[in-house]
């Protein structure tokens, strides 16, 4: 039986009859002159299928890392926009819901004797009390799901809270509020960790040439600080806009149903520093007409759509914070160690000195939304001005977030202390000021106070997050540190929830004392660091790789048989002898190296064969 000719002629070989050239083209067709087609069996194959002649390796490498840097910027913007939309939807829905449920006529006509005030109180309790336990599970959840997927899961829980407002019942609102309270600390801890990691990755992609000049080394301490300052400024400029976004349902929907201040404030006798509790004497009916259920469903559907958009932003546009092998390393330190490490970080004197600032950070943002906005603003200007007052606070804080970039030229303590001093002056001014109810001449003072308070809040938030990202730049610790930070914020918010019925002077006094202690403790910490006092950090255990797969092949091999495992164990027992027999010119793994899966697939046993 005759052998069939090859389907593809071999490059460089003549045909069987000598009637074809090296390209398999018959002689009669010919090849134009000047193409430089080699003849004969010795023609090199590279001249036919060689590399692209104009390929520039350095230019392609530069383009590659530029794309990676643009990807990091995309991640920062997507995470910032997702956090803004999520928090804006949550605040806007909660504010509209509490105003509607406060009105007696709305409760009686819409829900009868269902007990909405009791449901609202339990819902607020679930939101404010549940985060107290977050220190126990937040690091475990972040390590288990990963930073990006923890963000996505928490945003999804916020969307779940929005969806339950379609059917306002005890068994829908209260469980969703408890779930929301459980997601608060994991969301913002993973957000802070994510922004810090993006700054570190941007540094790596900007200084890739340094890694090529020698063996890979850890970047210098604080090398990512400039990028971290920029990214935190971007994040908090977006985040503070969420307070303005939260007022859109009030401006475009609820304000059309509200009474004016002459009706709602008719029984209010004192405001500001002379007030007690929250809006003592405020009218029980605030709605002129009741909104139609169809209109409420439309508003809630829009909010639900925005929450779903935030989920898509985090899911589709946010890249991973760590490489897959890095995430496995972070999980492989042991779940017991992950649970304990947040508590062990209390040994670090830097964290102990920053705890008062963490607590004040929770106090001041809630005071802006309740004490300043309600006790001073609504009490004197009416409920219809609440949205514009919070928008002034939001815009001031968003614009002032870029003042954190002063840390590029000034010492890192300057922005943080400047924001604290501004809040100190405002607190002292509010302590001695009591606006008169229903008097409009003093409105401009309240707007200026709201803007200035937003400036101080922005300096506080950007300064603290940047400080933590600079002091704790080890990727093995960042999720623990941001968990501690946001847990103390949650504790402070819980304390404000418990003391909501206190007189305004008591609230301002607590705020003032906490601020002074926070600044003094922080300056003491900086003084210790200048003296060279070394912080005591808990040791992070080495990863114990227990996975089965191709990611780790040093110790465990998922494809080995029992006999290979025994042979590997015998080799491990004689490891010292193997090391002695190792030669400098040989394979550094030694003759007892276990074959990799590729070698096993080929049927060989590595160097032993």
UniProtKB/TrEMBL annotation:
Transmembrane domains' residue ranges: 72-93, 149-167, 173-195, 227-254, 296-322, 354-374, 386-409, 416-436, 442-459, 480-500, 506-525
Compositionally biased intervals (Low complexity): 23-40
In alphabetical order, the GO MF annotations are: Toll-like receptor binding
Q: How does it sit in the membrane?
A: Multi-pass membrane protein
Q: Where in the cell is it found?
A: Cytoplasmic vesicle, Phagosome; Endoplasmic reticulum membrane; Endosome; Lysosome
Q: Which domain of life is it from?
A: Eukaryota
Alphabetic keyword roster: Adaptive immunity, Antiviral defense, Cytoplasmic vesicle, Endoplasmic reticulum, Endosome, Glycoprotein, Immunity, Innate immunity, Lysosome, Membrane, Phosphoprotein, Transmembrane, Transmembrane helix
Cite a single GO BP annotation: toll-like receptor 9 signaling pathway
Q: Where is this region: Disordered?
A: 1-42, 548-609
- A GO cellular component entry from the record: lysosome
Family matches, as InterPro entries: UNC93B1
Q: What is its main location?
A: cytoplasm
What the record says about family reads: Belongs to the unc-93 family.
Protein's job: Plays an important role in innate and adaptive immunity by regulating nucleotide-sensing Toll-like receptor (TLR) signaling. Required for the transport of a subset of TLRs (including TLR3, TLR7 and TLR9) from the endoplasmic reticulum to endolysosomes where they can engage pathogen nucleotides and activate signaling cascades. May play a role in autoreactive B-cells removal.
Q: What is the protein name given in its UniProt record?
A: Protein unc-93 homolog B1
Species, as recorded: Chinchilla lanigera (Long-tailed chinchilla)
Q: What gene makes this protein? A: UNC93B1
């Amino acid at each position: 039986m005759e052998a069939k000719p090859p389907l593809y002629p071999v490059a460089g070989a003549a045909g069987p009859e000598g009637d074809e050239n090296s390209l398999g083209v018959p002689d009669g067709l010919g090849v134009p002159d000047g193409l430089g087609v080699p003849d004969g069996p010795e023609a090199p194959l590279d001249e036919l299928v060689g590399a692209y002649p104009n390929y520039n390796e350095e230019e392609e490498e530069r383009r590659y890392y530029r794309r990676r840097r643009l990807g990091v910027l995309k991640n920062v913007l997507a995470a910032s926009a997702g956090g803004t939309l999520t928090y804006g939807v949550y605040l806007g829905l909660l504010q509209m819901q509490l105003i509607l449920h406060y009105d007696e006529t709305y409760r009686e006509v819409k829900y009868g004797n269902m007990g909405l005030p009791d449901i609202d109180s339990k819902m607020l309790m679930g939101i404010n009390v549940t985060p107290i336990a977050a220190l126990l599970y937040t690091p475990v959840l972040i390590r288990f799901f990963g930073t990006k997927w923890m963000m996505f899961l928490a945003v999804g829980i916020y969307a779940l809270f929005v969806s339950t407002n379609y059917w306002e019942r005890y068994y829908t609102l209260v469980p969703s509020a408890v779930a929301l309270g459980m997601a608060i600390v994991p969301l913002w801890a993973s957000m802070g960790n994510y922004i810090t990691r993006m700054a570190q990755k941007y540094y790596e992609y900007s200084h890739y040439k340094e890694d090529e000049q020698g063996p890979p080394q850890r970047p210098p301490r604080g090398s990512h600080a400039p990028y971290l300052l920029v990214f935190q400024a971007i994040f908090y400029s977006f985040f503070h806009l969420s307070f303005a976004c939260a007022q859109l349902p009030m401006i475009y929907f609820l304000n059309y149903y509200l009474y004016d201040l002459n009706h709602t404030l008719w029984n209010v006798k004192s405001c500001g520093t002379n007030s007690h509790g929250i809006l003592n004497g405020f009218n029980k009916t605030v709605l002129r007409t009741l909104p139609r259920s169809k209109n409420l469903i439309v508003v809630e559907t829009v909010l639900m759509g925005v929450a779903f958009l935030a989920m898509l932003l985090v899911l589709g546009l946010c890249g991973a914070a760590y490489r897959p092998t890095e995430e496995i390393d972070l999980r492989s330190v042991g779940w017991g160690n992950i649970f304990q490490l947040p508590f062990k970080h209390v040994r670090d004197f830097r964290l102990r000195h920053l705890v008062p600032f963490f607590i004040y950070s929770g106090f001041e943002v809630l005071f802006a939304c309740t004490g300043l906005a309600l006790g001073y603003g609504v009490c004197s200007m009416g409920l219809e001005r609440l949205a514009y007052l919070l928008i002034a606070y939001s815009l001031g804080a968003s614009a002032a977030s870029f003042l954190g970039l002063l840390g590029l030229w000034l010492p890192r303590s300057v922005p943080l202390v400047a924001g604290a001093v501004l809040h100190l002056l405002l607190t002292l001014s509010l302590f001695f000021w009591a606006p008169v109810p229903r008097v409009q001449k003093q409105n401009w003072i309240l707007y200026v106070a709201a803007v200035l308070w937003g400036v101080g809040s922005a300096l506080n938030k950007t300064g603290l997050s940047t400080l933590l990202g600079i002091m704790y730049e080890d990727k093995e610790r960042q999720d623990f540190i941001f968990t501690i930070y946001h847990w103390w914020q949650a504790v402070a918010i819980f304390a404000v929830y418990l003391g909501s019925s206190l007189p305004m002077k008591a609230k301002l006094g607590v705020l003032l004392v906490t601020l002074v202690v926070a600044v003094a403790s922080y300056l003491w910490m900086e003084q210790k660091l200048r003296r060279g006092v070394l912080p005591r950090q808990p040791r992070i255990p080495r990863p114990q790789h227990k996975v089965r797969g191709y990611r780790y092949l040093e110790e465990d091999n998922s494809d080995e048989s029992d006999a290979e495992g025994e042979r590997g164990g015998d080799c491990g027992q004689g490891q010292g002898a193997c090391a002695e027999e190792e030669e400098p010119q040989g394979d550094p793994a030694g003759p007892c190296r276990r074959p990799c899966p590729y070698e096993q697939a080929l049927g060989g046993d590595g160097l032993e064969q």
